Structure formats: structure tokens, C-alpha cells
Amino acid sequence: MNSAVTSGVTTEPAILDARELASHPELELRFVESAHRILADLVSGGAALGWVEPPSRDEVAELLGHVVSAVRTGDAALRAAYLDRQLVGLGYWLRYTRPTHRPHADLEKIAVDAAAHGRGVGRALTTALIADARETGVEVLTLDARGDNDNALHLYRSLGFTEYGRLTDFVAVGEHRYDKVFHMLDFRRQG
After folding, report:
1. For domain 3-141, which CATH number applies: 3.40.50.970, 3.40.630.30, 3.40.50.10320, 3.40.50.150?
2. Phi, psi of 44 (to 5 degrees)
3. Residues 6+ apart with CB under 8 A from 63
4. 113/51 Cα distance (integer angstroms)
5. How many of the other CB atoms lie within 10 Å of CB of 138?
6. How far apart are CA 7 and CA 147, in angstroms?
7. In terms of Cα–Cα distance, which of 61, 74, 56, 67 is closest to 92?
8. CA angle 18, 23, 28 (to 5 degrees)
9. Are the C-beta atoms of residues 50 and 60 closer than 8 Å to each other?
């Protein structure tokens, strides 16, 4: 178990994978509830996480159940970030299901509690997920982000992702329209 999670006050986020999370019953028990709170709060505040309205607890539980099942078969990675024994962020990638796209995965979601912004949580989660993808033989890791999510787009570029496409005014949130920006990290071109 990561000592930063069990020892008390920390300044750096402790990043756990799904196996480490499952090996700590207290954290695992609270994981869905804490993840739901983070996701619902972020969506309520306008975050670009794929929902227009905050997701229900059942939606989050179903989503995380799907991700954990995919982790067990080697088709996903899940990471959880903790500060001071509290879940402050989560992220995951899923392998593409089409047979012709199986060597590739999509970084589906990185969500960081607003209270933990600026503490390096998003970078730590994304870096860990990139390492997981590389270690499991993913060739290309893709992601998409809403065009107004400047902080996330800057983070992804700083970690080596390159933009490969953009759909102008594709994301509709009420009367507002945003670009959908596609990025990729091609491990085949790296040493």
C-alpha cells in the first residue's frame, strides 16, 4: 500500500492503480461514493466530462464497474489520486473494442476535485495512465477534450500528446457550442 495514503497528511498525491485500490478495503468501500461526488460536483460546475447534468450514483457505479471489469482482462487501466486519505481525482483508459483497433486505447476520463486543482493531481494521474498504457503494449493512446478546456489541453500537450483533429462547434451544452479536439500519443514513434 502506498505509504502516502496510509500515513496521514501529504503534499504530493498518492496515485493508486485498481489492484492497490482493491487491496485496501476502506478506500475501495468509499471509492464509488467519492468518485460520484467528484464527478457530480465537477459537472454541476460546468466541467467537460461527457455529461450535461450531474451523473447519478448508479451511473457512476455502473461506469466504474465496467472499467474495473476491463482492467481485469487487461483492456483498461484505472488510477485514483489521494491527498490526505481523501479521493481527489480519478482517471482511466479503455482499449478500443474493434478488432482492428485493439492495439490502441482511449484516455476516457481524468477528473480532479476542484479543491485539489493546481496540486499536480491531473498531471500525476495522466502520467501514471500513460505509463500503464505503454507497459501493456498500447501503441497509440488517444483522447478528446472540449475546446475551451485550456488547462487540460495544455497538460496533454506538455506530456507529448499532439492534436490530430478538431470538430468545430461539435459539443452542444444548451445554447453553447464548443470544439471537440482530438489528441494522440503515438508510442510507436517513441524510443
Report:
1. 3.40.630.30
2. -60, -35
3. 55
4. 16
5. 22
6. 39
7. 67
8. 70
9. no
| Closest residue by Cα to residue 83 from 20, 32, 151, 15 | 15
User: In degrees rounded to 5, what are phi and psi of residue 24?
Assistant: -120, 90
pTM across the whole model: 0.91
Q: What one-character DSSP code corresponds to residue 11?
A: S
Q: Flag whether pLDDT at 1 surpasses 90.
A: no
Taking alpha carbons only, the member of 23, 39, 29 closest to residue 109 is 39
Span 89-107, pLDDT tens digits: 999 999 999 989 999 999 9
Number of other CB atoms surrounding residue 33 within 10 Å: 13
Kindly tell me if the per-residue pLDDT of 143 is higher than 90.
yes
Residues 6+ apart with CB under 8 A from 80: 15, 16, 21, 27, 31, 35, 87, 89, 90
Q: How much is the pLDDT for 3?
A: 45
How many whole angstroms separate alpha carbon 94 and alpha carbon 138?
Answer: 10
The string over 81-117, giving b where at least 16 C-beta atoms fall within 10 Å of a residue's C-beta and e elsewhere, is bbbebebbbbbbbbbbeeeeeeebbbbbbbbbbeebe
Triad 47, 103, 94: Cα angle to 5°:
30
Cβ contacts of residue 27 below 8 Å, gap of 6+?
A: 5, 16, 21, 80, 82, 87
Amino acid at 72: R
